[in-house]
């Protein structure tokens, strides 16, 4: 009860105090202040609403950007996975291709010389050769006698005349050179078709090589692609020639590879001998700032030396001597007063160690010189061994064997075809390489004179096979069956076979021209032979005389 009375009293008192009559007059502006407060609250609410909209827009933009980034990340990840899968398949395909290629090359290189006695394989080869009929034996015999032997009768006299003059010229060259500073020139040697008795195309040109050596106390250190040094694949068949002092180790002293202290001295080399002036090496025909023999420098030196030598002995002869090619140091031409001329090549070479393999500065009458990587790279020529091999095999063949006749006929036909359709990448050296392979593969009795037609077909089929496969291996390099009587260096027999057609793999235009020329020669072969053949009775079956 008291609590209820207390509550009633408190309620009455509160009502009296809050009655409007008890407020002073200055509080009469409350309604107006309330409206301002309400207005400000509305403005504040509007600003908050706008701020909320702005924040919502920013959040939406951020969410959109995040989605774009996440999508881009997914695409990148998918592309990476796709690239990994593609790279994996590409690598796998390349590995399979390389394994197949290596197996094919090993198989072919292991059997590249085993062509003897494979009559069935020879019959399968030569798709373009099918349908081509060679003239009969009588026509071939007449063609050879009338066209080839009739034009090569003066070669022996020409060789004798050129060799005698070359010896006199080189003797004069030695007399005009400084024996203490200039290169030492040795006697010349005849190589090539003129000395192997199979050249048929005019003008007849004698090829002579002239070995030279540096003056004392220097010597040549020869490095080849198969001697363990690192040579790129496009430099196979080449080598370099380093000019060193005779008392230097071939591998070089350690003082050239390490820095000795100022208070240390090499007991083998003094400081004076270890540093050679650049001018001294250039006087030794080396490439600038190197010790490697420069073919261009050798070319200039040889031209100047030959000119001086001719000026010394010109009064003894009744003819003029001149350089027939500006880019060949020894392409010389003898001009007689009657108007006739004789051309010959006198080419400087460097002997490889104690063998008859030589580094040749350039190839006269050939486009191979354009393939030389640099002037310090020298190509190796095996011409002396090639001549010896032909002479060695000829002793085991029947009398009047047809091996030289086959090469002469094929060389003549190829030359005539090139005169009609233009030159091609196929050269007489490729034709001779084919003959060398067949000479080693076939027994001696297969080269009897009456088998000229069959052997000529073998050469054509073998050449077509090589053109189809783009592979014609060098006869000596990588050939373990070279006769021991030749004394051929073992390092080249153990080397990888050298493909003479390798430059044509990347040169499709030259390769296509070479193949087209060969096929055109096959089609025109009978017509060319008949054109230069005198008609003879069918009973004529005389053997073919070898020159």
From TrEMBL:
It is a single-pass type I membrane protein. SMART domains: Mab-21. Residues 1-20 form the signal peptide. GO terms for cellular component: nuclear outer membrane; plasma membrane. Residues 404-477 form the Mab-21-like HhH/H2TH-like domain. Belongs to the ITPRIP family. This is Inositol 1,4,5-trisphosphate receptor-interacting protein. It comes from Setophaga kirtlandii (Kirtland's warbler). The gene is Itprip.
